[in-house]
Amino acid sequence: MTKKQKKPLELYIHIPFCARKCLYCDFLSFRTLAAVHEAYVEQLIREIEAEGASCQEYQVVTVFIGGGTPSVLEPELIRDVCLAVRRAFDVAQDAEITIEVNPGTLLQNKLHIYRAAGINRVSIGLQSADNRELENLGRIHSFEEFLKSFQCARMAGFANINVDLMSGIPGQTLESWRNTLKKVTMLKPEHISAYSLIIEEGTPFWDRYGAGCEKTAAKSAHQPGTCPGEAPDRFGLRRRDYPELPDEEEENRIYHLTRTFLAEQGYERYEISNYARPGFACRHNVGYWTEVEYLGLGLGASSFLGGCRFCNERDLERYLGLDFAAEDWAERLRPQFTRLSREARMEEFMFLGLRMIRGISEIDFVATFGVKLDSVYGPVIERLVKNGLLRREGVWLSLTEWGMDVSNFVLGEFLLTSA
Predict the structure, then answer these.
(1) Burial 132-165, CB ≥16 within 10 A → b, else e
(2) What is the DSSP letter of 237?
(3) Residue 236, phi then psi, degrees to nearest 5
(4) What percent of the chain has pLDDT over 90?
(5) Torsion angle in degrees (nearest 10) through CA of 352, 356, 358, 362
(6) 178 in Cβ contact with 261 (< 8 Å)
(7) Which residues contact 365 (CB under 8 A, 6 or more apart)?
(8) Beta-strand pair 191-196/161-167
(9) Cα torsion angle, 193, 196, 198, 199, sign
(10) Rounded CA gap, 118 and 95, in Å?
């Protein structure tokens, strides 16, 4: 099979370790000893070798090393992972290779080793330029440490840097958010991800703010008085001891400021929560939203391959005990395995594609499913267009500005398999 005949594949590599878990985080991540880091990477490399042998019909077009906080590892371990990927997979010469890093865990010697290993994009988790807001989130770094990390990345030669920001966080105001946007855009990163805080069950923030509250990805909102909040949380403190979340009106202002401010600074909004300078949209994330197949490697990593979704073993001890030389390693690695129905794939095509500002192509829908878009969703689309939530331009269907404001509602209209 020639390289031109190979199918594109994205790799996600999960590093589940962090220096300290943030108060809002529900990702599969935890703190552990350096010896465990080494054992984990050795096992991860075995998985990479086993998976690579079964993916010869694919060419890797993007790699994303995420977590957790990959930069807590010794840089030589990251280098070893990158070398293993290149040995096991056919990696495109121009592949986008990203590593997530956090200020407070990043030294310049790490960045030079990352560059030498072929990593060409760095994603720095800042969240806020306000040190008080960072403390409220439980972050381990200050804004000043972020500035040093950003400058070190530039000095190491990285010409593609993303900065992660978070709105709707405790104690935040419209002015503090504007200040964060100003300080970050002055640095001219190539990409900015601006997500809204979601209060997830099982996190310390759920104890403080979440019981009985609703908070969605598109519009995080906290209504005073809807949460009991008077029982002490796991830290022995009560809700009134913590700073308030922005109310719904303030968060709406923050949401709209993000779009207008970043546009004025030359950033194109190419997805609901992502902005980039021309030519710097994250190829890995665009692949997710346009249904490029991806393979997750490491503890708890998720995959979409061959029309199936599956998730790796989530227990560290069991993962480290897997024998990748055994015939049944794949079955033991992936206890969760789901083959998507045609209807479920149509739903995902709409859910994911409509997150992109350009929307979805009716031509792509026909090519993927063999039927016209209107034969499946005609009445829904007609109603949403009439109500000003969707727009149709040629073969493209996309969310309007108002549609993006209420995207959760709009996307829910494309469910086919609800009970």
Answers:
(1) ebbebbebbbebebbebbbebbbebebebbbbbb
(2) -
(3) 80, 15
(4) 76
(5) 0
(6) yes
(7) 349, 371, 372, 373
(8) parallel
(9) positive
(10) 9
| DSSP H or E stretch at residue 179 | helix 174-185
Angstrom distance (rounded) from CA 149 to CA 155 = 10
The CATH code of the domain at 342-412 is: 1.10.10.10
Once rounded to an integer, what is the mean pLDDT over residues 44-63? 97
Q: Exposed, middle or buried: residue 375 (CB in 10 Å: 0-12, 13-18, 19+)?
A: exposed
Q: What are the sequence ranges of the domains in the chain?
A: 3-289, 342-412
Superfamily of domain 3-289 in CATH is tm_1862 like domain (3.80.30.20)
**What is the rounded distance in angstroms from the CA atom of residue 126 to the CA atom of residue 103?**
7
Task: Tokens for 87, please give them.
Answer: 């040995």
Encoded tokens for 5? 């005949």
Q: Nearest-CA neighbor of 317 among 71, 75, 32?
A: 32
Mean pLDDT, all residues of the chain: 90
pLDDT digits (tens, 9 = 90+) for 231-271: 555 545 455 567 888 888 999 999 999 999 999 999 999 99
How many angstroms separate the CA atoms of 342 and 13, rounded?
28
Q: Do 3-289 and 342-412 have matching folds?
A: no
The H or E element spanning position 207 is none
Provide the whole-model pTM.
0.90
- Which string of DSSP letters, residue by residue, matches 78-137? HHHHHHHHHHHS-EEEEEEEEEEE-TTS--HHHHHHHHHTT--EEEEEEE-S-HHHHHHH
DSSP state of 243: P
pLDDT of residue 205: 79
For 64, the 3-state DSSP assignment is: strand
Confirm if 121 and 97 have CB atoms less than 8 A apart.
yes
